[in-house]
């Protein structure tokens, strides 16, 4: 699987899947740079990781949806003399509702975080990397990337962008010092749906797609990253969904996505 990471940047690393990914990295000896909005959560995560694994953890409490944050993050790393060999683009959130009625300000913030910040962070990481080392990028997308998403139209579109972006970079860097992996999980047992006021949508019910523990998703994602795989879909139900999404006619995919993203009591 190659040399273990020495220093890993993890965005959204204080909770959910991001937190589980930090555990995987720390367990394999990687020092960490955690980036998230909430300093108190970052402090707690730092203390737990350092105590459990004996690693160094740097925290940078930035809101990456703000235009200058990615550049400022790498300025901070430059001042501290830190060069990362692994970048985990994990930070993200959802906005739920009919597009005509949903919160435009939050959707624009989501676009900045999922698309603009990820692009900036990836570019800055690549240009500052140590080319003598094995370098790795993990972009967290979703099985949402495989279908259009009524009621979550902007979110699903950003996930599709992340998948396309990642696969293109994976091919660009094939045979070089850089591996690019796209992790496409299904629903997970995290705060993600609750934060988006989506606790009652059919997708969260456990049928037909069962939620996975973030720790299991993180382990699969880490193994794929270390193996240099371009894409991984964790869980057999999610892989079945991905297979069906490849084969199904577009109108059927959209209607299924609308049904599964409706609130459980609707229609």
Model description:
- By secondary structure, the chain is of the alpha/beta class.
- It is 47% helix and 12% strand.
- The protein is built from nine helices and seven strands, in the order βαβαβαβαβαβααβαα.
- Strands 3-2-1-4-5-6-7 form a seven-stranded parallel sheet, with helices on both faces.
- Helix 1 crosses helix 7, helix 3 packs parallel to helix 4 (104-128) and helix 4 runs parallel beside helix 5 (153-172).
- The longest helix has 25 residues, at 104-128.
- The chain starts with 6 loop residues before the first strand and ends in a 6-residue tail after the last helix.
Mean pLDDT: 94
The biggest sheet amounts to: 7 strands, parallel
CA distance, first residue to last residue: 49 Å
Query: Which value, in Å, is the CA radius of gyration?
Result: 18 Å
Summed up, what is this model?
With 267 residues, this protein is α/β, with parallel strands linked by helices. Helices cover 47% and strands 12% of the residues. A seven-stranded parallel β-sheet has the order 3-2-1-4-5-6-7, sandwiched between helices.
